[in-house]
Amino acid sequence: MTPTARPKALVTAPFRGYGLEKLQSMADVVLDPWISGSHLRMYNADQLAERVRAEGCNIVICEADICAGPLFEAPLIAVGSTRGDPTNVTIADATAAGVPVLRAPGRNADGVAELAIGLIIASTRRIIPADRDVREMQVFRDGTIPYQRFRAWQIAGKRAGLIAYGAVAKALAWRLKGLGLEVIAYDPYSPEARSSLDEVIETSDIISLHAPLTPETDQMIGAAEIERMKDGVVLINTARARLHDMDALVAALRTGKVAAAGLDHFEGEQLPEGHPLCSMDNVVLAPHIGGATYDTEANHSRLIADDLALLLAGAQPRNCVNPEVLRARSQDGAGLSAPGPDGAASGPSGSGFGEGD
Predict the structure, then answer these.
(1) Is-contact 210 163, C-beta < 8 A?
(2) Catalytic machinery residues
(3) Which residue in 312, 308, 338 sits closest to 2, CA to CA?
(4) Under DSSP, is residue 258 helix (H, G, I), strand (E, B) or coil?
(5) Is there a contact between 167 and 355 (Cβ–Cβ < 8 Å)?
(6) pLDDT tens sequence across 134-143
(7) Ramachandran angles phi, psi of 89, nearest 5°
(8) pLDDT tens digits, residue range 6-27?
(9) Beta-ladder partners of 8
(10) In angstroms, how far apart are the furthest CA atoms of the chain?
(11) Are strands 78-81 and 101-102 parallel, antiparallel or unpaired?
């Protein structure tokens, strides 16, 4: 399974560090990250296929571009999606074309966990309105004393409940324990998460959401679930906005049932103009930046490059979504540079909970 010529890779994901150097040692690289310009550039399937043809590439590594139908008409060695769950790749199309799809699980776990910590502290201690008061020369706003106005409960000694227990939640758990919190977790697909959803909802002082958006998890936290939470609970969501009912959350924030919230994702990537959350001092809002670290880019670069090295050497990649295409190639003796159409359709590896970014 040795390629007949030096591969050429089109890389539209941010790629850096050891992973980039290793990729350049194995292949000619066209590096054109989708976030390198002043505006977002995301290829649809036809545009990406055309770019691959124009560059003469047989490896594609992307983060946001759509990898489907037309792309897999090219003689590809592999597609690398620099995401934990390659939702931008139609796995059935790749498998039907005999193209292995590589992914980068856990690439952003530390970055998202660190942002979750920031959201917890910023929302419970109301750091943003406190900062605003200092900047606006309103330390004694409306004749009040800031020491009184910003008093809050410390998080040490509280219970944090995590919903889903994938890489991000695990990275958050040890950080929370280090800050003096008790941590429990619910995830029906993880033997390490031993609490029920009812226990997490009903007994936690802080609830942090980490599930991917699936039919099973869509709107899993609604008005009924919020009503069962402790009075003054803190809700953190660094995963997907549709995991909770936004209207129910707004109502609970207004009554104080939910004392504070920290959110890093919204449907359509931003809130509508004039949304009530924007005027609430007990909410911290971030524009989907949990994984926006240079380390995340270095991590996914390493994971994809290491797996490509294994693939090119005829070995089994560690994070291949559709390994059946490799078995089919091995059985028919096909070379990596010209994958055949063998292999049955397959969906993303795994199911249930566990972060997808």
Answers:
(1) yes
(2) 240, 269, 288
(3) 312
(4) strand
(5) yes
(6) 999 999 999 9
(7) -115, 130
(8) 999 999 999 999 999 999 999 9
(9) 28
(10) 80
(11) parallel
